[in-house]
Amino acid sequence: MAQPISSHSQTTSQSPPPPIPTIAVDGIQPSTRQRAFSFSNLVKRTRRAYSVSSAYPVKVHPSLALPTPKSSADLCLSADGLEIQKMKVPSLTPAQRRNSIAAAQRKYEDFEQKIEAAPLFVLVSTYLNYFILILFGHVRDIMGKLFKRKEYAHLRMSEGYAPLVSDFDSFYTRRMYLRIRDCWNRPTTGVPGRKITILERESKDFNLSFRLTGKKMEATNFSSYNYLGFAQNEGFCADQVEDCVKEYGMSSGSTRLEAGTLDIHQNLEKKVANFVGKEDAIIVSMGFATNSTTIPSLVGKGCLVISDELNHSSIIFGVRLSGASVRVFKHNNMIDLRNLLREVISQGQPRTHRPWKKIVIIVEGLYSMEGSIVNLPELIKLKQEFKFYLYVDEAHSIGALGENGGGVCDFYGISPKHVDIMMGTFTKSFGAAGGYIAGDKAVIDHLRVKNHAFSYAETMSPPVIQQVSSSMGIIMGEDGTNDGVNRIHNLAENARYFSNELRKLGFIVYGDEGSPVIPLLLFNPAKVSAFSREMLKRGIAVVVVGYPATPIISSRARFCLSSAHTREDLDKAIRDISGHTAEMLQLVKSLDSVKYTPRSYIVADTDILSKEKATSYEQELNKGKFEIYNIPRVREVGQSWSSVPLTLLSALLTSSRILLNIWPDLIICNGPGSCIPICMLAYIPRILGIKKIEIVYVESFARVETLSLTGKLLYPFADRFLVQWSELSNILDKAEYKGILV
Ligand SMILES: Cc1ncc(COP(=O)(O)O)c(C=O)c1O
């Protein structure tokens, strides 16, 4: 039997460990890992993690500016820096050989989207929403247990038995999930390609059960992991699959260790190894089982697994099965990982303090809930320094990232030899099912007997093998066409366009540059269901995600982009999302429903800057039909507060005179200090139900967190928040307004 992968080389307890050299990351000195709970830290972390990205400068995705392939075959990133070395790595695929110097020079910072602070208003309203839901849920439970004893018997202590399902998860499922259950598990039919066909259903018992109505509805599909558009029932792959079924049937009828190894299994394993740039590979019929059975065959008692906090449940399950110790580091945070490594290596195993038998770090290439791409260059530097094994789950990145679809190594231009275990699935980019493990031959030979899903479960079905083989062949250019390259480019371009457009509109969007997974933050549980239902009404199928798949506060909609999407699909989706948010998200609201009367702009002359801006804007757009009114500024910077009541009164009087005079449909605010009185007054007719005066707040390149106090005050009242002044012209061009520009 093959031996397990060699043990982690560590200092023994006899010889004291030498001081571990430190790397300063981005000039930040590594600090001691803080474990103690601190309320202020919690608040800081929460604000950082669930935050607004309102005005990112547009970055050009480097993979779109494809560099010309170099003839020098094996350029790859040296592990100890970002300099390029010429190395002979015979296992590199032809596709990976095409990686250019430009690719190898990429840094993580080029793709990382910095997460910015969320406005307190969003956080507070989200917590409040949960508070009300939880409160009402508990009140209903208490009443139910008292007055509907039979119905609630399973939640009560009965005959000495404790209730079996009375934890928070059960409460969450009954009192929160059930209310919005229609947004998940929607039955579909047909191929989940660019479009998806959804079977309509209805519930007459508040989502306890559903009944199909018999109607079907077609929607643009942003919910499947069809990154490269291979989910097809026609074309090259489908034809080959059809031929394969005629030749091999549907099943090998045995396990791999017995009589189930077909020639096509072995061919696919060679192809996968070649594609990812490793010596050998095994394939397993289920992606989830690939992780959960491989990890226990590599590590066990006395070993340590260090896992990213957002790793997929198949990894968590595998680590638990293995019996290895596990420590978790903050998502993609290399400073935290470094501190953790120092701690665990210096301390060794619990109680005995013996050195760990081996240390394996498990990360994902692309995180499917966050859209973040692993910081592989920094991870490899740490690997060189601390000597751990690196296991990368490429379920979402293989095929979808990198100039050649080769995953994260290809994306950064890093040689795959730096990653010990490469795991991936065929469910996403290849439009099939199953998973693979690629690595050195000795390790893969060991897995061929020790991996239970490989040796004891059913083998991968022939049509599935053929689908993977054909689609991988297209990505590698084996069919002699540019189809594969075109798909990869379309996907990168679609992903970049879509996320940039959403960010420009002021949405809270996660995900690194180039990620085909684009999460749009909704926070509020009420918005989750509303967003999903409204999107479906508009023919957009999108997955909404909440607890337990995400932290309870950061519910989101997750758009999965595909190379099959056309620009029209994306533009329509963006229009639908931004229009729809009028009711759903406080960030961007629609003006569509309002009819505007002829244009006549008036600007309040509050300060020289905004007057100049308004005048030049007027000259550009309005060609001289511009009147300028004066509104006193409530308080100049540095002015004493004692005069504020008087100036506020005067501002309110002037504003009400202007409002009544113009009776506008729209107020465009640029300079919150002077906007507040007029916006407050403009709310009165809305509250009285007389007229809805739209308020648009323009802050050129401002981020919510950097707004002044008055800006933050005004922000929640604005119907539409524009981050770029130039975008205003797009709105104004489309409609005739009667409005005020403040
Ligand atoms: C990171 C990761 N690993 C493994 C899996 C399991 O793959 P499969 O769905 O093919 O079983 C998934 C599924 O989405 C995943 O996201």
Structure description:
With 742 residues, this protein is α/β, with parallel strands linked by helices. Among the domains are: 237-475, Type I PLP-dependent aspartate aminotransferase-like (Major domain) (Aspartate Aminotransferase, domain 2, 3-Layer(aba) Sandwich), CATH 3.40.640; 601-741, Rossmann fold (3-Layer(aba) Sandwich), CATH 3.40.50. The chain has 23 helices and 22 strands. The strands form 5 sheets. A 7-stranded mixed sheet has the order 6-12-11-10-9-7-8, with helices on both faces. The chain has a 6-stranded parallel sheet with strand order 18-17-22-19-20-21, with helices on both faces. A hairpin with a 6-residue loop joins strand 1 (75-77) and strand 2. The site of pyridoxal-5'-phosphate (PLP) has 14 residues, from helix 8.
